[in-house]
Structure formats: structure tokens, C-alpha cells
# Entry
Amino acid sequence: YTLTDLSKRYTRGKESITIFEDLTMTIPEGDFIAIMGPSGSGKTTVARIALGLLQPDAGEVRFLDQPWAAAGPERVEEKTRRLHRRDISVIYQDPLSSFDPRWTVGQILSDALDVAGIDAEQQAARVTQLLDQVRLAPQLAERRPLQLSGGQRQRIAIARALALQPQLIVADEPVSALDISVQSQILNLFNELKQQHQLTYLFISHDMAVVKTMADRVAVMYLGEIVELGSREQIFAQPAHPYTAALLASVPDISSRKGKFGRILSGDPP
Ligand code: ADP
Ligand code: MG
# Structure
């Protein structure tokens, strides 16, 4: 999965704002790459281009050795992507916005299984299996999204993502909207899944726990630039950018009693 020289601008009235320029990133198969960065740094824009939902102004995205998104005349049509659409699953911050509230969990998952070409007789058993994979009781299949807790809903979103048997999962801050205690449960689940399934992950988060426990590689995005990209070990040993250093310093260190919150950058990025 490669993103090459991507640029994106937004126009507001007469003003044109460059979100990023010449952004390049390669994600090898089976890698878990975390993109971190403060709010407004362009992470969601990268994700939407990577998913083929937003057209870049320059550059291209390739997936499974095929053009997936590109600028201008090279533009990739949705019908070209259709062949591999289900090989990329997406998990959003707020799963409610992507569920039809009238559907039961069972219907939501069956629908995804339908898309993945699983025939009707096998679907019920597979729904139970998927619920089990995300540590939910089979009875939950009867409920509707609004009858679930935030954590349960996010588990359903993960189950649906898995139902498609994708090669790549794009997750855009999948735990940010959850209570702290639930966040760590969902992150544990992601960690388990990472070990069970050989998938590739593009995982956007500003949670250091993700970087600490799961990421093979970390990209730090700041004001639309990837200011560093390296292995987890590298980033921890030698953070090159002040934002990364500040993030690392903000992780409470239970092994030492002093300097619990170290150095934290304050204020918004300009
Ligand atoms: P992040 O996900 O890192 O918070 P985003 O990619 O959502 O960042 O946004 C990056 C910048 O682009 C922000 O300044 C945001 O206000 C701006 N932006 C995002 N979407 C649009 C849009 N549709 N039109 C204009 N500006 C946008
Ligand atoms: Mg975002």
C-alpha cells in the first residue's frame, strides 16, 4: 500500500489552504502503522484519500499493485476500485454514524457478510463467530445500535470490518470517543486481533498506548507534514521532533515517582 507525493488543498471562499504537500508513505503488507498528530494536522484527510473517498490534488495511492486514487487525468474511477473495495475496511471514531439505527446487530453483520459473498445459510453461524471474536455475547445480535454502549458499538464496528475479510484496516481514531476505561479494552482487542490476523493496519490515533503496545511503525504528522516516520523503537529511543518528545514525556511513568507529566507542549498548533 503506497501513498506517493500526495498533496491536498481546501478552498474556503477565496482562500486556498494547503493541508499537506508531497506526502509519501509506504505500508508493507502485515505492518501496523500508527499515524499520530494533533487535531487539525491532516490525519483524517490522509485517511480519506487513502480510502479513495477524497480525490488528491497531486500524487497517487496504490493498493495491491493497482492504482487506487490519483490526481487529475490519472484519476481512478470508483468502478475500478470496486474490485478491491472490500479488501479495505474502515473503522471510524463514531460508529453510530455508519450504522443504520433500524437494523439489528445481526442484520448489520449479515449485510457485511453478504457483501463478502458468504451465503445465507452460513451467515448466522458466522455472525456468532464474529461476535465472539470481538468478545460479545451472541444475544447481542438481536439489539440495535442505540441499545448498545459505546464500547459495544465499537466492537460491532470492528466485527463488521472483519466480516469483509479485508487485507487492510483503516481506523480513524477508533477509541477517542470512548471513556478511558473502555478505550483500553478496545485497544486490547485491537492488539489481540493484530496477533490473530495477518492484516495491515493504518491506525490513526493520538493515544500513546497504541504506539507503545501495537505499532510496528509510527508516523508523526504535524501541520500537514510527516515530521518523523520510524520504527516504534526508533521513535521511543530518539524522538526527532519536539511534538513527539512532548507526547512521550506526557505518558505517565509509573516506575518513577518524579516528573509524572514531564514536558507538554501547550496551546494549539498555529
Ligand atoms: P485531523 O484529522 O488531523 O484532525 P483533518 O484532516 O480533519 O485533520 O483536517 C486538516 C485541516 O483541514 C483542518 O484545518 C481542517 O479544518 C481542514 N479541513 C478538513 N476538511 C475540510 C473541508 N472539507 N473543507 C475545508 N477545510 C477542511
Ligand atoms: Mg481527524
In short: The first strand starts at residue 2 and ends at 12. The radius of gyration is 19 Å.
